[in-house]
Backbone:
């Protein structure tokens, strides 16, 4: 969710105003995903590298998280959204950790949309912590065993990865899970990312052929010979 600071700068506003608007955009995007039948939405809210930002901005982001949790959890629960917070909680304050745990508990019964919020997260951290867990147990480290220990092991790998703000990189986000994800880079700053922009990304995804190492002919043959997993009429 990139571009909050630039959105604010262009309007001669404090950077934190852009982050507040970014929360509004996340609310809008989550609701749109529910309406479109998306089952899992994972967002990069605060990276392990973001601690390097000015202290005032980091403090403001922590306060914004606390306020958003207090204000949004009940509505998210009514919308059928289940919250998971993904990242290294050892680097967070006791009050913040308690708020995250409470929000997860309050939405644990929901099933319309799983919303993973990556906070104090980094893709390299995720791989390292998974390997450390296996090493601690003396377990063999394989792609399959690592996969089971990743922080997002409770959901499938993402089909589509969207980055806003015009940047063409993934910046340490889901390095393991995005191995076969379709990538979509949007020029929209995150606070401007709306339902139309989401639909554009989904349309681009639907127009792509996902081969997973196979040839186009193999994919087409497989699709023609297998029944759809779900059908709606």
Residues:
């Amino acid at each position: 969710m990139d571009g909050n600071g630039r959105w604010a700068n262009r309007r001669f506003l404090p950077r934190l105003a852009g982050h507040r608007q970014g929360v509004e955009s996340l609310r809008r995007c989550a609701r749109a995903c529910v309406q479109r039948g998306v089952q899992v939405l994972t967002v990069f809210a605060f990276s392990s590298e973001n601690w390097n930002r000015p202290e005032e901005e980091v403090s403001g982001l922590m306060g914004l998280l606390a306020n958003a949790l207090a204000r949004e959890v009940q509505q998210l629960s009514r919308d059928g959204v289940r919250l998971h917070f993904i990242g290294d909680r050892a680097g967070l304050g006791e009050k913040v950790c308690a708020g995250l745990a409470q929000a997860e508990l309050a939405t644990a019964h929901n099933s319309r949309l799983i919303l993973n919020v990556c906070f104090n997260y980094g893709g390299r951290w995720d791989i390292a912590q998974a390997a450390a867990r296996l090493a601690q147990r003396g377990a063999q480290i394989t792609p399959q065993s690592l996969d089971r220990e990743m922080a997002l092991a409770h959901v499938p790998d993402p089909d589509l990865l969207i980055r806003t703000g015009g940047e063409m990189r993934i910046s340490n986000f889901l390095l393991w899970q995005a191995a076969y994800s379709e990538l979509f880079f949007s020029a929209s700053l995150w606070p401007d990312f709306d339902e139309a922009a989401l639909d554009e990304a989904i349309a681009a995804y639907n127009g792509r052929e996902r081969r997973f190492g196979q040839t186009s002919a193999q994919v087409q043959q497989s699709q023609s010979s297998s029944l759809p997993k779900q059908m709606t009429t």
